[in-house]
Design brief:
Number of strands: 7
Number of helices: 5
Shape: elongated
Order of helices and strands: EEEEEEHHEHHH
Largest sheet: 7 strands, mixed
Distance between the termini: 28 Å
Helix content: 25-40%
């Protein structure tokens, strides 16, 4: 898992504050995003939580095993190819601040905007067999399976913040309010990365296929890995829904 990188941008417009936070969840099995500008007002009937999910982008690259490029993820011992799935989430949080006195304010969250991306790069060595290609494509299928419902996950996370009120205290309530918004934006991306976690399924897939070294059918291994990871993620008292 590659370390998550973040970008925080703060814009102050009167009493409305916007904070942008970018989180990244990298899966290696085998991006720099330009966020949209926050809107300060809602149209009648508009949902205060906006989720924009870009289509997944899949790239296949070929490399020389004797001189792999620097940007390629490292291969684990015994591996000859790798699928790099980069889940990117951008959270914008907007709030209205009501000044209580010189050092206190109440901040109410009015909007949450979340942008989602999935960038997949499949790295294949020169002269790779069709069997290895199919194995790495199985990793792609698992990543896209989880991304298919990513907007629902993000929507649910964002909904929990609307109308949340935060007590602000400090010599500069506006600055402290921005810090609070920044933390909430960071929490949103962290929660998204935690809940949208394909790693257990990817690990099970490699286990079932022995990293492409056995003859397991890719489609069967993908389905079994997703199903078992869902069963293991649900408490024993709560049956999984297939």
């Amino acid at each position: 898992m590659r370390p998550r990188r973040l970008i925080i941008v703060v814009i102050m417009m009167g009493l409305m504050a916007f904070v942008l936070f970018e989180g990244r969840n990298k899966n290696w099995f085998g991006a720099q995003n330009t966020p949209s500008t926050a809107q300060s007002s809602l149209q009648p009937g508009q949902n205060p939580v906006t989720v924009v999910k870009a289509p997944p982008v899949v790239t296949t690259r070929t490399f020389d095993p004797a001189a792999p490029p620097a940007e390629m993820p490292p291969l684990a011992p015994g591996e000859i190819a790798v699928c790099d799935a980069d889940f990117v989430s951008n959270a914008n949080v907007a709030g209205v601040s009501r000044r209580v006195d010189d050092t206190h304010a109440v901040l109410r969250i009015t909007r949450v905007m979340i942008g989602l991306q999935l960038k997949i790069t499949i790295w294949l060595p020169q002269g790779v067999t069709d069997h290895v290609k199919e194995h790495e494509d199985g990793h792609r299928q698992i990543a896209e399976h989880y991304y298919a419902t990513a907007d629902q996950v993000a929507q649910r996370i964002g909904d929990a913040y609307i109308d949340k009120q935060v007590q602000i205290e400090g010599e500069d309530p506006a600055a402290e309010g921005n810090k609070a918004l920044g933390q909430m934006a960071a929490d949103i991306t962290a929660t998204y990365n935690k809940e949208l976690n394909p790693s257990p399924a990817q690990l099970l897939y490699d286990s079932f296929t022995d990293h492409s070294r056995n003859d397991s059918a890719v489609s069967d291994a993908v389905a079994a890995a997703i199903n078992q990871s869902q069963l293991e993620a649900v408490p024993a008292s709560q049956p999984a829904v297939n």
